[in-house]
Amino acid sequence: MQPISVPKSREEQTSSSLTWKLAFFGVNPGVMLGFVLLVVALWATTPSFRQVSTLQNLLQQVSLNVIISVGMTFVIITAGIDLSVGSVQGLVGTVTALVLMAPPLVARFGSGVMVLAVLAGTVAGILIGLLNGLLVAYLNIQPFIATLATMWILRGLAEVLTNGSPVGTAMPGTPLASLRNNILEHQFTMLGMGYVGPLPLSALVALITVVIGHIILSKTRFGRQVYALGGNPEATRLSGINVKRILLIVYLLSGLLSGIAAILLMSKLVSGQPTAGSGFELYSIAAVVLGGTSLFGGQGSVIGSVIGALIIGIIGMGLDLHGVSSFWQQVVMGVLILLAVLLDQVTRKTSYR
Amino acid sequence: MTRSSVRRFQAIAWLVFALGLAGCRNPAAVSSRTSGATNEASPAASAHYTLNLPEPPEPAVAIPSGPAKRPYRIAVSLLTRDDDFYITLEKGLREEAAKEGVQLTVESGDKDLNKQINQVQNFVAQKYDAIILCPVDSQGVISAVALANNAHIPVFTADITSNGGKIVSYIASDNVQGGRLVGEYAAKNLLHGKGEVAILDLSTVTSVQDRVRGFKQAIAQYPGIKIVADQDVPGAKRENALPVATDVLTAHPHINLIFGINDPVALGALSALQQLNNKTVMVVGFDAGPEAQNYIASGSQLKAEAIQYPHLIGKTAIDAVVKVLNGGTVPPKIAIPTGLVTQASFIKK
User: Fold this and answer.
1) Do A53 and B124 touch (CB under 8 A)?
2) What is the ipTM of this complex?
3) Average pLDDT, stretch B185-202?
4) DSSP states along A124-155
């Protein structure tokens, strides 16, 4: 539970700003320390963790959560939430796969169909974000309820679109089967599984997303408006800022980024799976919360969420490397989130005194 | 409530709600096996009966379990651990690995394809000698198989296989033989060579096609028995089997026996008979999970079901891996026979 804090006045914000400066991009110092200790401990105890290929795998595996969490950070800073990001994986993934494997398109464009598929997936992500934004900003539906509804709707649409079964390898004998399968299994998989030099391509996409997201949030007028909106929506509105427009853009951004993650996931799964990404919304919320972003809005950072996603990824991998059963991994993850929030509470209480 | 305390409440409610949602999400796994059933792991069907099943027959192609030449490191990614079938399969893997003196790492994909691919990535990075997969999805697992293929790590599949990549051997239940077993018992012991039969099917799934093919092969030996209906049950689910069974019984009032291709379908057919107050039509099925065992043991209209031996699948998988790593060869598909559960399989306490 969060500390009972009165809405922040200007004085209080400056009094607590020292702690936030000391902390790394708003990540709680305790969480940061824990993160460093975790890495050191794994490094020392686990030979396989020291291999380059393990670190490459780690980066590739966390990249999807990082990309989604950048968008989620914006949303949560406005005191909102986006529960639909997991279902986006299902719907955008199947849309991408359907375009990629459409015989007429493959016949017309050959391997160029991959560009169309990425385009279709991206547009689908943007449209979903737009829908969430319209519901929240213009129809005034609470973000939790609006995105809970779209979560079911999108998942359902993905199942309807594919009749519940994955869109994958074409059956032999269907039009252009071997060409389509070659594109799906050998060319398009490069997006989710390929490398640029030593860096996994999906990690590169995540890195670019993080840099752009961080700059927008911390250096632009729009970014400051996002914080303002989360900190005090009433004051923000009264100061003449178009609150609805900001909200719309924030949800659109979340849709776009989860759409991009969905395309990478589809490529990795070599198929459009209508059930793909269920539970991703929770991993993302967990990463954002671990990263020190407040669910009450007005506080947080993109870099914090990256740290959060890395913590989740490293703990999962570390426990796997040590052969801890996935049952216990869930317990560990839950305890970790509680610890992080409790630590945050303690740090903030001390900073008020 | 002040405005800010309302928002605080909302935020807390979100978290609670979101965490609650985590519990009720269950990504559908595409499994060749249509329901979770097992023999060893399931408790006795009821308080009054114990299942006394004969020792599983050895696979048609026996894999001589020569000792491992060195303590190989073998990694496994299961589909899930939420299912008796896989729990028993894992036990078979572990026991045989201990016997062979090989190092075994078992992880669970938890029905999450992305997670399973990540696990295989990590196995490859850790340079295991061989990988055994129970794929979450035959299509989606292709990229993981390709990773291992590129690293020249042999990949084996158990229960379900991959649609692509190089698989050294696929170890799974012999569904054709299982279907034949059920068909023979039905034709000979239940119908005594004559009558009308209906099949409640799921004709899009390969393993079910095998079951039905075996069943039909057995029935074909008896000219007095006619298959009058072969109807698909959407998703092979219990709630869908009930109306389909009712319709089939209405359309063909002289049916004597129904074959349900898995537990939910057979039990759905049984419910349909109860609703129609039909006391004569018999049901046979496949999987023999605890609930079905209970019905068979108590002498209901559910008479017999084929049962798989997941323990033997696990054991054989390890034997096959060791044989290949020792430099031997194994067939690309190893079929594990199934057994038959009838009322006679139970001992009254």
Assistant:
1) yes
2) 0.75
3) 96
4) HHHHHHHHHHIIIIIS---HHHHHHHHHHHHH
